[in-house]
Design the sequence.
């Protein structure tokens, strides 16, 4: 278990945020942690699953940060898969 | 005995140039402080200032200016002028003093460096007047807010801001160290006096003084007008220095110096002046939008100067023009959202009438930015104020130190690995500036770098506020006490028009 700081953006938001995740977090959990700082604050929620994109790849929801080998301070983008 | 006309003695008195016999030119003008760019020592002697003044005339003029400004202040001190100012305008001037007073003092160092290490006596003479100007600008912009401390304690940030780790202060120190305190004489003449003073602040101060008068802030208007008259004079050191480089085949280097500081100046200008003009200035007193001001004044003047000097527009010109439509709106939204991290009360500036004005001046604003403000207003109306504050940091650029913003985040930040460390940049020009001289910038830690490195304790927003030097009484809040949020909302664009059918407390989202 290790904390991993990420540079994260939610598609449609206006800024990149510093978001801490755990290396055992799944992408579903990572998306929730990023959305926490954006949805209902500046963007409305949508009835659609959230996905995480890293280096032009959309990662499987069950994949962990460690499995995806995402280094600290990498950029990830979260979006609604609507 | 009749006095001579100044034109009959001026050149003789100022031209204290001579060739050194007992020391080398390099000893008198070390490159690190002077930077000749290979222009021969005696060639610099042809440097000629466009604005000529004697010390006697200078003192006479300055004394009159001081009497005029302080007379206005004395007269107004007995009035209630400050209490009657618009809250948004108060925010603008409290922010202004924290941002500008200390850099004016730092500019004293810059002017004094040109006054000693400028390669021509005429230049050194002019720079010494500039040094005295900047001492005055520092002192007067500490004195005026000091007199207002009884009305608003946060005027103390005129002096305090630069001595803290507040995020804006970090950004401004980074900028002004690059431009002033850690710069050589030639680069400073081009980057400070040509790019920033002639290009940005001289015109900005003219507009600011007019806006202040419109809003009834006669004191601030008088102060800024007085400063501007000095700036207009000493800013003229840049053009002859540029001409010197161009005449001696150093056009590319001159262009590079301009391109670096134009971008840096633009980013800071968008943050400070953009919010002030388009959000803080009362709607009824706005004469031009920030974009109109940029196009009609700043950009026109730069275009004329680039053409007259045979220089090119900076290579990122199209990107800069594109940012006129959105960058300062994003900066403003971010500043308001993290309003606890600034020493003034940001004016959201998004009443219904103001939103219509913004949409008229920036077609598409409602769709790009109005929707964020709609969500924020909903939260205010429903009592969910906690959702209008951040619980984490916005990532900032390792060059301009300002937030990584976009009207709709889509592409990754520019990233660069240098000596094993990863740097993040908001834009191609900021990354390019870093690449011009990595050793100059590589050691700096942004506010986010410091947080990640564990330098900010506790590692949460309260720790961040303490690190920035902001006590609870100093932290900003909404200038209008959220009155704008309780107005009837306008139509929301269809693409983001979903209504919120559940309360934030029931959200399954968690950290």
Sequence:
């Amino acid at each position: 278990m290790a904390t991993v700081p990420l540079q994260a953006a939610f598609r449609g938001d206006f800024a990149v945020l510093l978001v801490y995740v755990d290396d055992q977090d799944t992408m579903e959990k990572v998306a929730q942690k990023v959305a926490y700082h954006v949805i209902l604050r500046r963007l409305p929620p949508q009835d659609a699953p959230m996905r995480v994109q890293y280096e032009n790849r959309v990662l499987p929801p069950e994949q962990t940060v460690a499995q995806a080998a995402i280094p600290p301070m990498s950029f990830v983008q979260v979006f609604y898969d609507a | 005995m009749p006095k001579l006309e100044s034109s009959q003695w001026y050149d003789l008195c100022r031209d204290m140039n001579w060739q050194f016999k007992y020391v080398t030119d390099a000893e008198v003008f070390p490159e690190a402080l002077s930077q000749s760019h290979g222009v021969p020592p005696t060639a610099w002697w042809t440097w000629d200032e466009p604005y000529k003044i004697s010390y006697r005339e200078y003192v006479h003029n300055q004394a009159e200016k001081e009497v005029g400004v302080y007379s206005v202040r004395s007269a107004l001190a007995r009035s209630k002028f400050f209490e009657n100012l618009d809250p948004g305008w108060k925010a603008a001037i409290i922010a202004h003093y924290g941002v500008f007073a200390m850099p004016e003092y730092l500019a004293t160092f810059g002017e004094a460096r040109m006054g000693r290490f400028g390669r021509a006596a005429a230049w050194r003479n002019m720079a010494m007047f500039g040094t005295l100007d900047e001492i005055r600008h520092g002192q007067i912009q500490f004195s005026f807010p000091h007199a207002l401390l009884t009305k608003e304690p946060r005027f103390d940030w005129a002096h305090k801001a630069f001595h803290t780790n507040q995020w804006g202060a970090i950004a401004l120190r980074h900028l002004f160290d690059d431009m002033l305190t850690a710069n050589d004489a030639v680069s400073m003449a081009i980057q400070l006096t040509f790019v920033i003073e002639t290009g940005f602040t001289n015109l900005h101060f003219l507009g600011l003084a007019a806006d202040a008068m419109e809003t009834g802030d006669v004191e601030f208007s008088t102060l800024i007008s007085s400063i501007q008259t000095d700036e207009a004079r000493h800013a003229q050191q840049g053009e002859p220095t540029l001409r010197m480089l161009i005449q001696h085949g150093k056009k590319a280097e001159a262009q590079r110096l301009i391109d670096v500081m134009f971008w840096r100046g633009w980013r800071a200008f968008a943050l400070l002046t953009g919010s002030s003009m388009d959000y803080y200035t009362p709607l009824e007193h706005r004469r031009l939008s920030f974009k109109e001001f940029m196009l009609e004044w700043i950009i026109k003047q730069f275009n004329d100067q680039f053409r007259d000097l045979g220089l090119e527009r900076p290579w990122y010109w199209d990107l800069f023009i594109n940012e006129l439509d959105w960058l300062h709106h994003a900066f403003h939204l971010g500043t308001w959202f993290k309003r606890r991290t600034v020493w003034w009360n940001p004016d959201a500036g998004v009443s219904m009438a103001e939103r219509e004005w913004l949409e008229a001046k920036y077609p598409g604003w409602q769709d790009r930015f109005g929707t964020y403000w709609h969500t924020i207003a909903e939260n205010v109306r429903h009592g969910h104020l906690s959702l209008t504050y951040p619980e984490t940091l916005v990532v900032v650029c390792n060059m301009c130190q300002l937030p990584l913003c976009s009207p709709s985040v889509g592409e990754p930040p520019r990233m660069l690995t240098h000596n094993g460390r990863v740097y993040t940049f908001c834009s191609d020009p900021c990354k390019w500036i870093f690449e011009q001289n990595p050793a100059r910038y590589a050691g700096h830690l942004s506010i986010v770098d410091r947080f990640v490195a564990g330098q900010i304790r506790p590692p949460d927003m309260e720790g961040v506020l303490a690190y920035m030097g902001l006590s609870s009484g100093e932290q900003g809040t909404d200038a209008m006490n959220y009155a704008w949020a309780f107005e009837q909302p306008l139509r929301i664009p269809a693409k983001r028009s979903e209504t919120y059918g559940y309360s934030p407390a029931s959200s399954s989202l968690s950290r």
About this structure: Strands of chain B lie at 414-418, 421-425.
